[in-house]
Amino acid sequence: MASSTAAAAQAATPLLKDELDIVIPTIRNLDFLEMWRPFFQPYHLIIVQDGDPKKTIRVPEGFDYELYNRDDINRILGPRASCISFKDSACRCFGYMVSKKKYIYTIDDDCFVSFFPPFHPSINFASVRSVSVKVAKDPSGKDINALEQHIKNLLSPSTPFFFNTLYDPYRDGADFVRGYPFSLREGAPTAVSHGLWLNIPDYDAPTQLVKPLERNSRYVDAVMTIPKGTLFPMCGMNLAFDRDLIGPAMYFGLMGDGQPIGRYDDMWAGWCTKVITDHLGLGVKTGLPYIWHSKASNPFVNLKKEYNGIFWQEELIPFFQSASLPKEADTVQKCYLELAKQVRAKLGKVDGYFNKLADSMVTWIEAWDQLNPPKGAVATANGTAKSK
Amino acid sequence: MASSTAAAAQAATPLLKDELDIVIPTIRNLDFLEMWRPFFQPYHLIIVQDGDPKKTIRVPEGFDYELYNRDDINRILGPRASCISFKDSACRCFGYMVSKKKYIYTIDDDCFVSFFPPFHPSINFASVRSVSVKVAKDPSGKDINALEQHIKNLLSPSTPFFFNTLYDPYRDGADFVRGYPFSLREGAPTAVSHGLWLNIPDYDAPTQLVKPLERNSRYVDAVMTIPKGTLFPMCGMNLAFDRDLIGPAMYFGLMGDGQPIGRYDDMWAGWCTKVITDHLGLGVKTGLPYIWHSKASNPFVNLKKEYNGIFWQEELIPFFQSASLPKEADTVQKCYLELAKQVRAKLGKVDGYFNKLADSMVTWIEAWDQLNPPKGAVATANGTAKSK
């Protein structure tokens, strides 16, 4: 079964094979890639090594990858490397910046191919970590291919301006329902595809502590657009996006070593991203695909990381809900720099951390432009891109 | 099987037995109620007979019901009966007005208990219309009880202010995900529960014409809140709401006989309702339960009814998206009258019909208050309620 599935997955030309990078932050050997081999092997991987650069990370044979550790990041970005978090998976955003592809898929190294039905007695999860991959089926009987579903989500439009009650109208067997204005049926370009998790849900530390046994076993067979004007908690565990459309907004902030907060990296990126996609008329989708999240992180450690964030998010949400960008902000970079200005002006009084974060947001954009010089510009070896 | 299911459904005390009315608009004998008997028999039915009042509508034995035909509506409302549509299922909203209960469930007479899996070979749909009801299972193996699911939706809070990626956080096995502000986890009172349809989807005439064979067979196991600020197409086929919270906004407009438009009754009610629930801090849910929609209506007849609406909705959506209610509008009635004023001011120029509709909106509120005098007021036999 395993080999035939793998063969089937590899036989067809993989979607966007040369236009998508898979970004993985890690502190350990990447044995988990064995499970993803039939789906990931055709793609290029960007591995961002978190923590001690002296440690060697083992990548299974046969994968095409580049790996960056802290020394590499310091060397490439110079003083601007200060915007990349250390000892935190937030460092993954360096991978978004260094990629040259149009699309990014990022995943945590404790996430696996999804199984449906979850907890099916015939699936022995322990055996699943071995090379003999059993790819299970979704309710319609098809193999779940998370990456393929993300690509489908990104390549079809979003519907941020009006809610469709039968979910994604572009999906086979679905459409816009009665009462959906025809002028809005073209939809908007999709910038982000946010996937979900079976088994261990993405809960905060207090919820983890209160519900240690809760597992997500509900497979909701839907993809939907998060409406314009609505914020959501974007999780970085199973996430894809269009770099050209939204890349520079995908900054995962200052977390981890030396910072007063952790586990808000993806949230921060999600709130900034949503304000900017709303402003630019782009779409954000959530729902399918599911991945299998194998292991809950330690809730006590998490509480320590989240502690400040739990208070601060009460101020952050109203800030982002009321944030408004000027008409002149017509690129992601301009939007992001404007947002940095507003962060300094309005969140600096919540905590001094936000002044530092606002500075880093500016540095991030400088670093992004350094590695991604605008077309028609020449990158200088050691500075911002200059126009020809 | 059939009788044991029915017995099981009746054995437990039905939820909200004395607090909910089921409103059904019809032009034909109500044989379809046989299928719903195990679920509906404990409740009181309000049947609104559409069209010729001389026709006798047969209701199966054993149901507790009151039936109103056009003569009854004219007698009860006098000149205000003009606000109730004739020869259109929009007349159902008279049932909302005449009810004395806190909750309403309304359903079309061509809708049946849902089947899952859809198109299961063991289900012969023809036989299902007989008294031998085969109640099918949802994916978790439980009987689908649409009314019970609506009641659960209405009795648990909504989350209109922030999006929860794992859908309804109040459902068993689910919760708020990381990054969801704790101050928002109490949610908001739920005013509306909008259910969906398997088999025949609720498409407009152009989509029906283009996709005559499309059937909805996707069971999406989710209930979600439609975010604040987002409009949706509310379908009246499978709908429940809290009369106390939102009843006076559930006016289904002027449709059918003598009007230039049909099939926008529920849409109109939905757009008005959403603007008002957003203003008052109430929630609207959509998703489960599914009902089985048995028969597509004639797309040619529908196109004739919808023709004007297809143009007008392009103006209506921006109107409702930008509608804003003043702080003083602190009851549904006040909100609705304010909205009527804005309809006259801004939509009158789209078509004279909207001036007539604005007048009817005012009449509807007068009629509502006539039949539902404010507490502490005495209803007069033939006029608006007067305060004591």
Summarize the structure in words.
Chains A, B: It is found in: Golgi apparatus. Chains A, B: Its EC number is 5.4.99.30. Chains A, B: It is an enzyme of class 5 (isomerase). Chains A, B: One of its GO terms (cellular component) is cytosol. Chains A, B: One of its GO terms (molecular function) is UDP-arabinopyranose mutase activity. 2 copies of one chain form a homodimer. Chain A starts with a helix and ends with a strand. In chain A, the strands form 2 sheets. In chain A, strands 1, 2, 3, 4, 5, 6, 7, 8 and 9 form a 9-stranded mixed β-sheet that branches. In chain A, strands 10-11 form a two-stranded antiparallel ribbon. Chain A has one domain: Alpha-Beta Complex (Spore Coat Polysaccharide Biosynthesis Protein SpsA, Chain A), CATH 3.90.550. Chain A contains 12 helices and 11 strands. The radius of gyration of chain A is 21 Å and the shape is globular. The first copy, chain A, is 34% helix and 15% strand. In chain A, α11 packs antiparallel against α12 (353-371). Chain A has helices at 2-11, 33-40, 70-77, 93-98, 125-128, 146-155, 205-210, 243-246, 265-280, 299-322, 332-347, 353-371, and strands at 20-26, 44-49, 64-68, 103-107, 111-113, 190-199, 223-225, 238-242, 283-293, 377-378, 386-387. With 388 residues, chain A is of the alpha/beta class.
